[in-house]
């Protein structure tokens, strides 16, 4: 072997020995020291021993200040003294050094490893609670709760009012976030980024909210006026919005039960069939007459359906409700001034045409002493009108010139076979409930009366 080659081999051996020695020294060194780039609780402990690291941690923990960033660029802090922070060696630092990969130390110069040893950091629970509760962001006077986006009526329409974030914190989450930062030396912390704030549950772009805004504007953009002649009732935005409910998808829809209740209230207020009426008699008395079939009665089922359809279709109109039974006059005084008045006690019948007595006759009414033959009292309705027909009379059957129905098979008729009317004849020559009167007076009534005219019968 030449001298040149010997020198080259010797240099290589020396280099290998030096490298092995340096590697071995590195392994030995990092057996007791942290590898480069080692951060313990956010403090740089590179190349430090356990003792040196713990001295640093003790010093840093004592000087630690937690900076707390709050919403809207606010900032507060908690010091180590306020929190009662201290470092208490529990072997965690030693375990970190033992467990690091010292055999690859030569690859770690560009590393950056974060270690947390919260178990070695102690805090005073009472002091921490006092410090947290003393933060400005935790004071009730400084707190605004979040509010959901919602609908409000403005300028005759509903609009979406955006949500308000507020600045109210979730107490438990905030406390845990701060304690975790104290234990690990993390600073600053951002309460908003860490999800510590209460948030609205409904935002202005919420799909259901947007749809409901359109729906409520459509459903309430209707005015329906019920015409009761001298009285009206109005169904408008203010009324309809109380009838809204939500379906299984959370969308507005009309509550049929509420509308049924409204129509029922209308019926209770405006239906007159069978109600007690104050009535001024032909001889100047004021009496109360109840019962009978005359008057107005709303068909509640049909009107509920009609009202729902009008609202759903956005139709504004003035209307009368669907009636199951109609009278002649819709005013508060639904008897009006054209009616037939029958006084059973006086056995007298008077017909008023537009407030003027046009016919006045003595009568024979039903016999109250024969079962089911008494003429019923109450307010009834003129029904079918016939001339030249046959009815059940004294000599059953009997022909009459005029028949004016008022209650089922009962009616007002002339009685060609009779020569006398009035007084007490009804007690022994009474009818089966109908009213008999002289032909000339019945003819006047027949010629002037119309269907649905009231027939007021009283004792």
Please name the defining characteristics of this protein:
single chain; 459 residues; alpha+beta; five-stranded mixed sheet; four-stranded mixed sheet; 28 strands; 30% helix; 26% strand; rod-shaped
Question: Could you write a compact summary of the structure shown?
Answer:
The protein is α+β, with helices and mostly antiparallel strands and 459 residues long. The protein is 30% helix and 26% strand. Helix 9 (256-270) packs across helix 10 (300-312).
How helix-rich are the residues, as a percent range?
Answer: 25-40%
The rough form would be described as rod-shaped
Give the C-alpha Rg: 50 Å
Q: Work out the number of β strands.
A: 28
The SS-based structural class is alpha+beta
Question: Main sheet: which strands, in order across?
Answer: 22-21-20-28-23
Mean pLDDT: 90
Largest sheet: 5 strands, mixed
Q: Segments where pLDDT lies below 50 for 5+ residues?
A: none
Number of helices: 12
Strand content: 25-35%
Measured distance between first and last alpha carbons: 155 Å
